[in-house]
């Protein structure tokens, strides 16, 4: 059985040797290991993939805790083959959702989509085709707190460790973003803050942009400014129409979101202040 150990702490001498020695004493075979000491934040980050048979996670935690405490470390251990449970939030645009549903269904994305939540009913049939529960939670300024409580309750009910805003066109309250800290991923086009509001690709066309891109990041109370996980751009020319920009932009958004989810679901991402450390 394969396991993933992740750890972060203040950078100090001897961390790698202590972890390796501990795993060796447990007859665990390390098959992949990445580590990084940030010279600015003075934080150390480590991800270890190892193989061990006849393994009890409770026994491991009991034995490893003294080492973690002596290092002042935050750490987790996961079974590498487990799929991370996810809840998807979406509005009317379905390009990101369709990719997530297809790749989850075919096994190429290591998540299990437990539920889809939308403030519109438009994508209900799509969810039904993939046999994923669809929850229509309409929202108005007056009902927003009640709607967000329903979302939070559903996430808890499904025991989801990932929430994906797959073009969910609602601003989450500071309360909800705090509850979802470190486990909610959002995707947006790269034109912010220059082209806000409706039809950003049409606005970009009018300004003659030469690059179309997208950013996936963790959700924080600072709108679209959370720690970045993945970004990508594609070059465009004067021959591309607004509709072509929209199509290309949607493709990039889907690709970037998929990659960010892969990193998160495989426990490759560490939040380091306003940035991320990602072991590819």
What would CATH call the architecture of the largest domain? 3-Layer(aba) Sandwich
- Show unreliable segments: none
The largest pleated sheet is described as: 7 strands, mixed
Instruction: Let me know the average pLDDT.
Output: 94
CATH class of the largest domain: Alpha Beta
Q: If you consult CATH, what is the topology of the largest domain?
A: Rossmann fold
The fourth-level CATH homologous superfamily of the largest domain is Formyl transferase, N-terminal domain
Helix content: 25-40%
Gap between N and C termini? 21 Å
The structural class is: alpha/beta
Question: Number of helix segments?
Answer: 8
Number of domains: 2
Count all strands and give the number. 13
What is the overall shape?
A: globular
Strand content: 25-35%
**Strand order in space, largest sheet:** 7-6-5-8-9-10-11
Topology order in helix (H) and strand (E) letters:
EHEEHEEHEHEHEHEHEEHEE
How many whole angstroms does the radius of gyration measure? 21 Å
